[in-house]
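Entry:
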Amino acid sequence: MPKGYIIARVTVEDAERYAQYAQGSGAAMEKYGARVLVRAGRYEALEGDARARNVVLEFESFEAARAYYHSPEYQAAREHRVGAAQGEFLLVEGFDPA
């Protein structure tokens, strides 16, 4: 079964509120089995617009990633992000060579 990924590209506008989001979303990531592949490291825009904070989370499946995003735990954390950051959040299915 292909893995599921959440990809986030974010510009933080209120660091204090965003820190509250990060704390709450971290607890939800642990509960829902997220594996952090990328979190805010070095980046370089090769084409198009870039954002300073980039995150890639890996889950056992597309459905597990969706469950994490729509969970009460993540949605409670998300309330701290809304208005504190701008960005794009994508749920994608991984490639399964089988």
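The first strand starts at residue 4 and ends at 12.
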